[in-house]
Amino acid sequence: MKAKESHLRFYVLFLSYQDKQYSDYRDLSLLDYKDLQHRFIESLAAHLRITEVDKLEEGGLTPDQSDALNSTLNRLFDNLDNYLITDEYTSWLTSDREILFFHSMLKVMSISKIDLIERPKDVKLIGDTLWPKLRDKEYKKHITEQRKEAEKKAKHYLERHNIRPSDDGYYEQLEKETEHYFRREVDLDTREEIMELEDTPLTSTLETTKLVCSLCSTIDKKCHITIINYLTYCCIAKNIELRTVQLLLLNIRNLYILSYQKISLNWDILKTNNKHLIRKTYDRLESQYKITNLFFPTEDPEIQKKCIVTTLDLLFATASNFEHRFKLLADKFSLDKSNSEDHSIALNDKQWDMLVDLAGGDTKPKINRALNKILKDAYKNRFHEK
Q1: Cα–Cα distance between 314 and 194 in angstroms, integer?
Q2: Which of 111, 270, 284, 296 is the most exposed place for a label (fewest CB within 10 A)?
Q3: Of the candidates 249, 265, 362, 355, which has an alpha carbon nearest to the alpha carbon of residue 309?
Q4: pLDDT tens digits, residue range 217-233?
Q5: How far, CA to CA in Å, does 228 sit from each of 36, 37, 89, 236, 328?
Q6: Burial bucket for residue 299 (CB in 10 Å: 0-12, 13-18, 19+)
Q7: Residues 355, 370: contact at Cβ < 8 Å?
């Protein structure tokens, strides 16, 4: 029976751990089926100390070598159930949107130090930790209370220095000292939040998954396979339990399903192909949410658009006030759109079919050539008639 690609990767990883050899998880993710087979045979030969790989492929082994081969193959098969991350947990990772969400969720878990295995109900705390606070009613109430406290401290300060309300410049001095105490309180809150985050120890799951922060799924299309390879190796090395990895993948998949159902690609902000509008939204998300901590910076509009989609997916999954956050982004987008030139034209189905027929296909180059010819011919005819 022909082995699956995931099985071949597992065999190579298992043998590399047994032989205490370094395994390049990224390189392994780039190999096609034929190359994986060859890598497995090479790993098997090295494990059995068979110098002539051809003998292993062609069956020219000694009886002792054959016994060792059968024993090794049986051990590999027996350990599939113990350490292999099966397709049941990974087959949903097919589209760019799914892969980007999967990788980004692992990253935000690592950055926020919130383990969705130990704290599955605390997913919204990721947003509280990572995303900027909105100026909503609760925020404004907190700021008002901080200002009142700052003013109280400022009055005590002035009183201790014998500065009275009847003195000239008292209220200007009071305003200055109030701002000083207010800023100090805000800075203190920020420092405490940073220190609390830095002092939070990593769980075994977060310790294992922190490697993903060095990967980039907008550049490496096989990044998710690299991550699965790495997690598989960690299971083999007993750095993490297989069941833990399975639950992690299921939790992230369930979060993705909820985001997918909510975030529609038909929304104007996601439907547009206007490069200027895409860039404006991308830059806004970077300014507000520092999304280059999750995605490698890019000038490519197509990749920028994917980053925008995934950011909205993440915000829905992790922010407790998504509707408010999205409205702010959508309102800004509408303003950008009203101030932007739009050279697109709307065609009904019949008009589109006619254009495709004239172009001899529906690819972008063919459509562009057909439109260019139609415009040139029409312009020449109009000029000729004059």
Answers
A1: 22
A2: 296
A3: 265
A4: 888 888 999 999 999 99
A5: 16, 18, 10, 12, 36
A6: exposed
A7: yes
